[in-house]
Amino acid sequence: MIRLLSVAVAAAVLLTAPAFAQETRSFTDDLGRTVDIPVEPLRIVALHDLSITVPMIELGVMPIGSHGRTTAENTPFIRSSKVLTGVDFDNSDIQFVGNLPADVEAVAALEPDLILTTPWQTAPVEQLQAIAPTVVLDDSVRGAFGTFDVLAELTGTEDRLAVLKTRYEGQIAQIKRLIDTDSISVSVIQANEGKLYIEHTYGTLGKVLRDAGFTFPALVEEIPESQSAEFSAERLPEFDADFVFATYRTDTLQTPADAVAALEEALPGYCEYLHACRENQLLVIPREEASSASFYALGALTYMIISHISGRDFVPMP
Question: Which domain-ending residue is among 162, 186, 202?
């Protein structure tokens, strides 16, 4: 059953609305909704930690509230943020407003002048819109880093974004100068419950690899852009490459051993089926940096690739 706003909160929203009257403009979000939003929003609530909150912090804008996750001890955290930005609930003024669905009453209590959400977030848009102008951003349409463009537009931080993009362009140029990427194949494999989860472009890691000009297995290229697919473990050899990447979740305290165990569970003796593994060219890295929409992560991954591949004698795929 959809939970309705309490009478008290609904009344509070109505009573406080005039205090936040601002100059507005029309904006069309990714659901095709036209929303009147503040020209200069001051109190933003972000309802997806990875795709909205972390990018906002990197743009220099602190939301007043954010979606987040909780530990086994029920301690809230912004996924990946402490590693990527140094900011979390425990060292900032950002208030935790729940996970999935977000707590609509907690959002209302913060008296936002703009709410940013995603199709993934199950807090009803119509309830959020009753609190403050609500914009739905879909990174499956824009791409993770395309969302940065609209966030910069909404928050007036285009200059900051331009600096971040210039730095990344320099990092990619450095990879291309040091590595003959056109002649090296790469692949990113994630084993999940006995199957292989493969993305056309695996998050931030995939963006760096594609922007740098590495090549991918044919089966990866058959997956439509911005989409993923699951495959039976027996197809693992079709994802082999000169260098293969696997990831593990540091936010749930996993280690590289967990990524290896997942591959072994999917296909016992998996290493003998992968050239990259047999030749010690399987690289197991944290998923937080590999998948997060973060310019810091882009930089960390460019240097990881340079340190592991440039100047290295490796065994190419036969």
Answer: 162
